[in-house]
Amino acid sequence: MSTNPITRLHDAVVLAATHVWLSLAAADPSDADRAEGVDRGQATTEYALVLLAAASIALVLVAWATKGGKLTRLFDAVVDQLIGKAK
To answer: Which of 22, 1, 13 is nearest to 60 (CA)?
Structure first.
């Protein structure tokens, strides 16, 4: 497993997209199920779409932050603050 955060987020987005696709393929209830009010797969599909959107936004933010070295500076600032408070 890669330790690169962008690679890990990319893998998460691909996994979420696969989950969405599989959920959409399985989310076609029969007419009998619709008559009974059963919407199997709809909640799962909605959940998967939300996860996909969140992972995509996170991927864009991490790519933006790492491009300019902002993530490294932020991490260093947080660690410096923690060390300063621990002394």
So the answer is: 13
pLDDT, tens digit (0-9, with 9 covering 90-100), for 22-58? 666 665 555 555 555 556 667 777 888 899 999 989 8
Q: In the chain, at which residue ranges do the beta strands (DSSP E only) sit?
A: none
Helix (H, G, I), strand (E, B) or coil at 28: coil
CA distances from 3 to 10, 25, 32, 64, 74 (A): 12, 32, 48, 18, 18
Nearest Cα to Cα of residue 52 among 86, 76, 26, 23: 23
